[in-house]
Amino acid sequence: MVTKKPLSSSLFSSLIFFLLAISCHAFSIREASISGLQLAFKQKKLTSRQLVEFYVGEIHGLNSVLKGVIEINPDALYQADRADYERRVRAPGALVGLHGIPILLKDNIATKDKLNTTAGSFALLRSVVPRDAGVVAKLRKSGAIILGKASLSEWAAFRSLNAPNGFSARGGQGKNPYVLSDDPCGSSSGSAISVAANFVAVSLGTETDGSILCPSNANSVVGIKPTVGLTSRAGVIPISPRQDTVGPICRTVSDAVIVLDAIVGVDYNDGATQEASKYIPHGGYKQFLKPYGLKGKRLGIVRNPFLGFASKAESQAFEYHLQTLRQGGSVIVDHLEIANINAILNSTGSGEAIALLAEFKISLNTYLKDLVASPVRTLADVIAFNQKFADLEKINEFGQDIFLLAQATNGIGKVEKAALINLEKLTRDGFQKLMRYYKLDALVTPGAGFAPVLAIGGFPGINVPAGYDDKGVPFGINFGGLKGTEPKLIQIAFGFEQATKIRKPPTFKA
């Protein structure tokens, strides 16, 4: 639920924005990038307090329809005032990066403050986390303002196969800000909705299989799904340590890269970050925001089955965008095939579902046990809570079949080990072999249907807005690569974005 604010405060926020808009040095907060906001700070056209007040005003004005935000941080204005003070006294780090910039976090990312961390479920309301999530600690160090928690598909879409994308008991049904009746996708739906609708400039989402790439694709925003381990998962309500990753959702590639730079790195509470840290380039990722990033890149095109998932408008746009990529200097290697692609995309047949169910029970029980205080301590407790409080946990009408299947597992046994071996084989003989044989820098696909290929191997991907159909429904283009290839993917995504500049603000069509 969003914390209520007095009407006078909301009017005050609107007045501030109005005065800014009519000033002789007008600056529009809406659609502003991080660099634009930092420049406005520097030129004293804007303060972090004014920025927070504007975003809170927008949330109160539209969130009752869009349901992109679950909770606003009651300390956000205090953090804004501190950022403004640090800017005035020229504290180290002020006026760069995320300093003084509000950010929304998906409600499965823990914050050790007055905010709840619930995965959208009443079962975890008023639970107490032991510490900030690793990525949150890095955000605070960068000077970012934690504005609140974004809505999501409850339990990161790992509770029920029947629940709609973007729905949770605490948050309600998230809506696509471009066409309200269209699917916002999940599970990081609120993070994408909020950025698209200008509730905030930047947000964090999480992905196990498609949960950053799909909502970014559906809501016309940029989403980066990092290599697994590049960003810490410590303090994130888990599904699978083998596939979970945390990444930025923003309106531009450059903003997403600034957030990525802030959250990558070693966290001793997540062992995977030590191994993945070898991929982090000296000097960070911002250096790869090059206008000619497409030049010389070898880009693979797998038409079957991904173009079959696309609408007519998406297919036509994709063909047009291939010409854009060529004109930018990329080498297009077309009509490629990923071995056993149908098996990879079938989570039951591939073994992904079997592995995830067992991993979820183990990792969730560990997370719940580590909480300082909680109404539930095991997956079994969560299932019992949902049964007992059916009227409160409104998602009960969709059931909890995934929970029940996960609860029936008993660790990583023979069946699970066989599934994991099969996933490794499918990855090795499919995506990895294709990328290496053709010496590709990235694979390019329309939409987010490619997500499972990246998910089972822990590979990175970036979604960039690519167009809108005749009803105004957005769609994107995805660039995926091997582990640690974020620098190349950023060059490609930024080059494509700058060549097309196709994204436009939402229309809020019914």
TrEMBL record:
Residue ranges crossing the lipid bilayer per the database entry: none
Record's keyword annotation contains Signal: yes
Origin organism lineage: Eukaryota, Viridiplantae, Streptophyta, Embryophyta, Tracheophyta
Matches recorded under SUPFAM superfamilies: Amidase signature (AS) enzymes (SSF75304)
Sequence ranges assigned to domain Amidase in this UniProt record: 51-452
Family matches, as PROSITE patterns: PROKAR_LIPOPROTEIN
Pfam families xrefs: Amidase
InterPro entries (alphabetical): Amidase_dom, AS_sf
Keywords, ordered alphabetically: Signal
Protein name: Amidase domain-containing protein
